[in-house]
Amino acid sequence: MMQTLDAPGATLAYGVLGSGPVLVLIGHPMPADGFRALAAELATDRTVVLHDPRGTGASTMADPTELPDPEVLADDLSRVIAAVTDQPVDVFGSSGGGIAALVLASRHPEQVATVVAHEPPLTEYLPDAAELRERLAGVSATHREQGLFPAMGAFMAIAGFAPPAPAADAPPPPPPSEADLRSMTRMVLGIETVPTHRLDAAALPTDRVRIGVGAWSGDAALTGRTSRAVAAELGVPLDVFPGGHGGFHPGQGGDPAAFAAVLRTALG
Question: What CATH number matches the domain at 2-126+196-267, 3.40.50.1820, 1.10.287.110, 3.60.10.10, 3.40.50.720?
């Protein structure tokens, strides 16, 4: 059961399950549903908080065309945490949610105990950041000129995410749901604002931060590169998680039980 709270320009949806120390799971643009399997593994001894970032899932926006901003996403996350507890919490963020979790730690350090940012796509920490900025701008241009699906194709080429080849006799995949389309739109709208964010390293409590990288995410995957670069830049531990970018998601070839075991170790 999802609950809601008001935020400037948005209504935020979140859910709580399990009992024990609080652990928040956050993605972007993936909403809470993508974490359901992982949450089930963790809720046996933790209070797990799930959250749909503004503009995804059940979280609405006054202006859906507003560009995603990591600082706004982090402040939204802060509001959700405050609605659940007044104590510091553990936070696990994946992809753009990993960026939001890191920004949360710098803007609201009193709310976090340990933060694990799994494959945050922070391209500004790479040696080819300038080239990537141009390519990401090209995704935005493709979106404006050709639409969502060509833009998604352009992004996938940059990200190095190779979808598995379907079996010869496999039926065609179902069309994206309305929720999927909203999430893809939020990702493309934020393609020049989210990956290019630079962290306020001076405000970041690095003693409470860890970076995660997927075991399958080598140098061909953009998020494999960014994860290693951010961990090195911040001087924080790099934890290797099972699978790739979606290593916790059964629909992306992930193993939630194995992923949860590594996450428990990283959180201590």
Answer: 3.40.50.1820
